[in-house]
Design brief:
By secondary structure, the chain is mainly alpha-helical. It is built from 2 helices and no strands.
């Protein structure tokens, strides 16, 4: 708990600064960069009915 509130405060200030300076910027994590995500043949669910 020692670092929770200071880090939450930093995150809130970062959000406020980004909202003012770049309101349409989305700081998101890039997902789907693995070989399994690129190979679409493994994405189909097998239907055993």
């Amino acid at each position: 708990m020692l670092f929770y509130f200071p880090l939450a405060t930093l995150a809130a200030y970062k959000g406020l600064v980004e909202m003012v300076l770049a309101p349409f910027y989305w700081d998101k994590t890039s997902h789907g960069k693995t070989a399994e995500a690129v190979d679409h043949s493994t994405c189909h669910a097998s239907n055993t009915d």
